[in-house]
Amino acid sequence: MASRRAVIGSAGGLALALALLTTAATAGPARAGTSATGASAGGAAAPAWRLQQRITWQDFMKDQDLRWGRMPKAWHEGPFLGDGLLGSMIYQEPGQNKIRFTVQHGRVQDHRPEFGSGWGTCRLPVGHLTLDPLGAITAVDWRLDLWNAEFTGTVTTDKGTLTCSAFIRDEILVARAAAAGGEQVRWTFHPEEAASPRGASEAPPSGYTPNPAWTTASSGGIAQVIQPLTGGGQTATAYRVRGDTLMLTVAHSFPAADAQATAVARIKGAEPYGTLRQRHRDWWHDFYGKSFISLPDERLQSFYWIQLYKTASASRAGGPVMATTGPWLEPTPWPAVWWNLNVQLEYWLIHGSNHLELDSLTSTLDRNRDQLVANVPAAYRADSAGVGRSSDMFATRGVGTPGSGAEVGDLTWALHNVWLSYRHTMDDGLLRDTVFPLLRRAVNYYLHFLAPGADGKLHLPSTLSPEYPVTPPRDTNYDLALIRWGCRTLLDSAARLRVDDPLKARWQEVLDTLVDYPADANGFMIGAETPYDQSHRHYSHLLMVYPLYQVNWDQPEHREIIEKSVVRWQSLTGAHRGYSYTGAASLYAMMGRGDTALSYLDKFFDPASRFPCRANTHYAEGGPVIETPLSAAQSIHDMLCQSWGGVVRVFPAVPAAWQDVTLHDFRTQGAFLVSAVRRAGVTRFIRVRSLAGEPLRLRHGLTGKITAVLEDGAAATVKDLGGGVVEITLPKGREVLVHTGARPDVVVAPVATAKPADPWGLPPIPPPGPTTPVSLSAHFDNDAVSSHEAMTDGDADGSGYTYPAEELPPAGPLVHEGLTFTFPAYGDGARNNVTGQGQTIAVPAGRYTRARLLGAATSGALTGTLTATYADGSTAQVPFTMPDWGGAGASPTTEVLRCTHRHGRSGSNTLKVGLFETRAELDPAKELRSLTLPALTRPQLHLFALSLEGPAR
C-alpha cells in the first residue's frame, strides 16, 4: 500500500487527502453530539456535559431558500445549479417566451496560449437548453431548494401549467417537466459558438481565427453536439429524453479529440433517476452538516448559506480552479482565472466553514507545478516559479520581471490560501509536499531581484501593485508584504519540518534588512514615492494588514497607521467595487469594530450602491464575477471568529444588532473546531475540539473567572496570558468547554430572527397604482437610437454607440409589469431621450407615490437625485439609481428589454445593451408640480420615458 505521504504528494491524492481530513474532522463527538465531562480549572470533577444540536436541518435550510414570484430575465436574477464542473443558470430566454437553462462547464476552454488568456486560453461557451411552452407565460412560482440543491417550480401560461425540477450530479444535468391543461413539454438544445465571451466587448487579436463550427450526431436515442477546436481538443454535449426526464452532459478533452465518446458513455451509464437523485441529496445533506452559523439578520443569514451552496456548486478539490465567472459563463471581459485578488477571495470561506473538500485552488497549484515553473523567464526556472495576472485552469500565463514594472506577486498570494488550508488542517504532508516547495520557488523569484541600497536596506525594483493606474514604483507594499510573509513562513515551515534548508540564512537576512513599508501622512503608500492618491478598488497596498496580519490591531504601536490607511483608502471611492466594501468590513472586524464592519457590508447589499449584490446573490462588473459575494461571507466569518497570530478569537467583532449568534464546528487555524453561543449580547459558552493537538490560545471575550472543563471530567490546564487570552492544554481529539458562572445549557440551535427579510430571488410585484405618462418631447436633447441602415446616426455615450432601432418597441404606449409609459418616436436625426442637465419637467398636477423612470445610464451605473417640487412650495431630494446600459439592474430596478447588440460608427457591436425601469419615491400627501433632473456629466442619464404612479386604489 502506498504511504499516506506519497498519496498526498500527488494531485489526485492531495484532493483525496483534503476530503478525508474534512470527513475525519467532522465524524467525532462534536458532530454526533456525544457527551463530555469536565471540571472547573483546578477543581474536582464536574458532572458530565453534552453538546447538543437542536437543528432541524431541513426546516432551517428551507428558510434560507431563494424564491421567485416573477420571471427572472437575466443570469444575475435566476436560480443556479452546479456540481463543481457543470453549471446551469435559469432565466427567461432574452426577448422570447421560453425558459433558458444555460449549459456551461468549468473544463471547457480554448488551447491557443499565443493569444493570451482573454482569447487564446479562455473559457468557451457550450450552449443552453430551452423549455418552450405552447402558451404565453403569465406567472412563475419557483424555489431553489438549498437543502436538496434542486430547482423546483411551476410555469403558468395561458394554455396550462408546466411543473419542472432540475439538479446536477456527476456532470449530468437532470431535468424533469410535466404538463397540465393544454400545455406540452418541449425541450430544445441550442449550441453556442465556441468563441471568447470577451468578444462582447472587444475585437479579437490580430491573427486570431474562429474555432470551427459544431457538428451534430445521434445514436441510440442520444443526441450529440461536437465542437472541434483549432488549438486541439474537443468539446461534446450529449443528451437524451426518456419519458419526463432529460439528462444532459458535457465533456471536454485535450489534446485528444475523444470528448464525444466520454459524453455518450456518461449518458449511457447514468444511474436511474431515483438513485442519482438520492446520491445527490445525500452528498448535499452531509455537506451542510459540517458546520453551522445562525444570525438574527434573516437576509444576511440566508445570504451566508447561499454562498456555501454557491461555492460547492462551483468548486470541488481535484477539479479546476474557479474561473472568475465560476462555472456559469456569460458574455464577460473575465473569461479566465484572475490571480491578483479574485482567486484568493473565492476560497477564503472554505476554511472557517469547515469545507476543505472544496479546495480546488490547492489541487490546481499542486497539479500544475511544471507550468508554474515555465511561467518565469528561462533564466530563473532552475529555482523559481510564478503566474501572471490571468490564466486558464492550468495556470498558463507568463510573469514579467521586477524592474520592468510587472505584476509578480500573484503566485505568492495564492500560496497564502494554500498555507491557510495547511493551517486549518495542520497536515504536515500538505506543508511538506505542496506549500514549502512551491512557496520556496515563488520567494526565490523575488530574491533574484532584491538589492541593497545606500541605506543598507534591501530594495525591490519597480513592480505593479495590482491594477493601480500609475507608473509602477519601487518597493511596492504589495510585494514587500508578500516577501516578508513568504520568508517568515518558509523559516517557520523549515523548523516544523526539520529541514536544514541552505536558504534559511538568506530568508532571515531578508527579514532583517528588507526596506520598511513606504508610508506617508495618510498611511501606507502604494510604493516608494507613490502615495495612495487615486481611488482604487483593490486593497493590495494593505495586504500586510489584511489578510496577512503582519501589521495588526494587537500591536498598539501600529493602530494609528492601520486606521489612517483604511480611512484614506475608503475616502477615495470613485473606482471602488463590491469587494472594496467587503474588504473594509474585514479590516474593521480585525479592529474589533463590529458595527462599522457591518455598515460596510451593508453597502454591498444596498440596491443604491454602484455595484450591489444581485437578486440571486451573484455580482457583476462588466460580467459575472464570483469572488465578491464569497468574500462577503468571509467578512461575516471575520466578525464571528478569527484565528491569526496563533490566537483563536471568538466573537471578536459582533455588531450590537446581533444580540444572539450561534457558531458550531467553525474551523480555525491550529485545526480546532469551535462552537460558541451568544445570547442577549453575552457569550454563554465556547466549546473547542482539537483535531491536531496544537497549542490552543483563546481570546474568549468572557467576563469574570472562567471555567474550563475537559471531556473526561478533569479540569483543563489553563494559563492566563493577559489581554483576555488564555492558553489551554488540549490534546488531539479532546474537547474543552469554557464558560463563566454556572454551567449553561450546552446547546447549538438557530437563533430567533430580529431583522426579518424577504427571501433572496424575485418577489411577485404587487399591481401598481394608476400611472400617468409624462410627455418628455419638449426636453429631448439626445439621439441614442440608430437604424441598421444608418448606424452612424446618433450618439448615446460620446463614442458613437447607439441602441438598435430594430430591437426597440414601437413609438407609443408601452406596458411594463402593469406600468404604462409613452415610448418616444425614433428615426434618423430624431432626438429621443433626455440627458441629465438640470432640466425642470412640469408634470400633471396630482398626488403620486412614485416617479417611474424608463432609461439607462452610459459611462457607468448612475446614482442621482431628482428634485421634487410640490404645490405648497416645498421641495425634496429624491434618490434614484439607473444601471449602465451594458450592465444589470438590482432591485427595485427591473430590466425592460435587452438588445442583442448595439450600433457603432464601425458597424454592429456585440455589447448587449438594455433599458431599465427604476423608481423614485414621492410624498403622496402633497400635490406634485415638477421634477428637476440632476446636472450630470459622467455617468450620464438617458431618460426615454417618465410616468407617475398614484396611490393604489
What is the topological layout?
Blueprint: H1 4-9, H2 11-25, H3 29-32, E1 35-39, E2 45-50, E3 52-53, H4 57-62, E4 66-68, E5 80-82, E6 86-92, E7 99-105, H5 116-120, E8 127-131, E9 137-145, E10 150-157, E11 160-169, E12 172-181, E13 187-191, E14 215-219, E15 222-228, E16 234-242, E17 245-253, H6 259-268, H7 273-288, E18 292-294, H8 298-314, E19 337-338, H9 342-347, H10 349-352, H11 360-367, H12 369-374, E20 390-391, H13 410-425, H14 428-447, E21 451-452, E22 458-459, H15 477-497, H16 504-513, E23 519-520, E24 523-524, H17 559-571, H18 578-590, H19 594-605, H20 627-640, E25 641-644, E26 647-650, E27 661-668, E28 672-679, E29 682-690, E30 696-699, E31 706-710, E32 712-715, E33 718-722, E34 725-728, E35 735-740, E36 747-748, E37 761-762, E38 771-774, E39 785-786, E40 803-804, E41 812-816, E42 819-823, E43 834-835, E44 840-847, E45 850-858, E46 862-870, E47 875-882, E48 894-898, E49 902-904, E50 907-909, E51 914-921, E52 927-932, E53 940-949
Parallel strand pairs: 1-32, 3-36, 4-37, 26-30, 39-40
Antiparallel strand pairs: 1-2, 4-9, 5-6, 6-7, 7-8, 8-13, 9-10, 10-11, 11-12, 12-17, 14-15, 15-16, 16-17, 18-27, 19-20, 21-22, 23-24, 25-26, 27-28, 28-29, 29-35, 30-34, 31-35, 33-34, 38-53, 41-42, 43-53, 44-52, 45-51, 45-53, 46-47, 46-52, 48-51, 49-50
